[in-house]
Amino acid sequence: xxxxxxxxxxxxxxxxxxxxxxxxxxxxxxxxxxxxxxxxxxxxxxxxxxxxxxxxxxxxxxxxxxxxxxxxxxxxxxxxxx
Length: 82
Hints:
Number of strands: 3
Structural class: alpha+beta
Strand order of the largest sheet: 1-3-2
Strand content: 15-25%
Low-confidence stretches: none
Order of helices and strands: HEHHEE
Oligomer: single chain
Distance between the termini: 32 Å
């Protein structure tokens, strides 16, 4: 249990220290990428914030267009998968 807490803490520090280099949307067909970008609440150059990503997923689900959404991060590139 302690190891899990430590790993979670280290991961959150790493993600919080990451600057967003780009944002991608894969499988997005119900709304435009421009609208999706406005809905997420952050932009390229901002610091990666897990709470904002969680909130953006909730915002997308509230549109009732999507059944499954997940987000991946690779070298500062955030990708939303729909």
